[in-house]
Amino acid sequence: MARSTVLTRVAVGALAAALTLTACSDDGGGDGGTGSGSTNGGSDAPADTGARATGDGSSGTGAPPADDAQTTTEPPAQALELPRGGTEFFPEYRLFGYSGAPGSEGLGRLGIGDLDERVVELEERGEEFADDREVMPVLELIATVVHGTPGQDGMFRTHLPDEVVQDHLDAARRHDGILLLNIQPGRADFVDELKYWEKWLEEPDVGVALDPEWAVEEGQIPGNVYGRTTGAELDECAAFLSDIVQEHGLPEKVMVYHQVHTSVVQDEQDLEAHEGVAIIKSVDGIGPPGDKIATYNLVNENKPEHVVPGFKLFYEEDAEWGPLMTAEEVLALDPEPEYILFE
Length: 343
Known about the structure:
By secondary structure, this protein is α/β, with parallel strands linked by helices. The chain has one domain (50-60, 73-342): Alpha-Beta Barrel (TIM Barrel), CATH 3.20.20. The chain is 23% helix and 18% strand.
């Protein structure tokens, strides 16, 4: 694969010498990050994850939340429907979201300033991408946060506290949107992370966004190499979500998997369709419009037919490579993305 057409995540310090593209900047804001000079995968390594660690009340263990923990707001009045009506997302809705986590601007726009102000901004910006659809607001909260150090359980990840998840679910409900729990698993398995968040996934308006770029194996450090997953592992996650939907009589649930490079998802055709789960493949990566489009086309070559396309934009980093793609340019992508996410 030609390096000029691949959007990669590398530390800022390596940009001038190694690449013409990067997928995130290193703001040095995290605790225990790998450091911009600590790479083991050359130009194919993702960026230092230090800026991605909030460290505020996060759990350093793999223990799930207490069984008696309760959400503080009731589900929407029609719990068997989506927040804006119906039981399926497509083709009625265009999903439009912000990602991030509180207290760290480097994690994305969702974590900047007042949460409700961000959601109002999200809704207004989303109308540019609506076309003939109704916009469904999406808050993609980075709930399992990857780190460059192992932590108490050696899994290189921590969890945001329940109170933070509740705050974001409350905000989503105030604006008739949905919450996605973004999972950067480190050395943990995706399905184990879904089990950790299971009580939240039983809510009718909560789904997941899996980030396999940060799923590493024994002996690997997140941020030094690209992580990866398989179609079989993604299929296990989709089956887990489908069981929850069927057991609790829920409306359709979203499962996103982000992909920045063709190597990040292997044997993708092993991912099958599952009742009650809208599976979305969101193409990740920063760069000028031409390279983002080339990567979108390349990564989608192996997309299973039943998987819905998505596309990710970066407010600041894309503009640095510039210009930021317009709504018209994004909607002209083929296939047209059903989920558009800003970080």
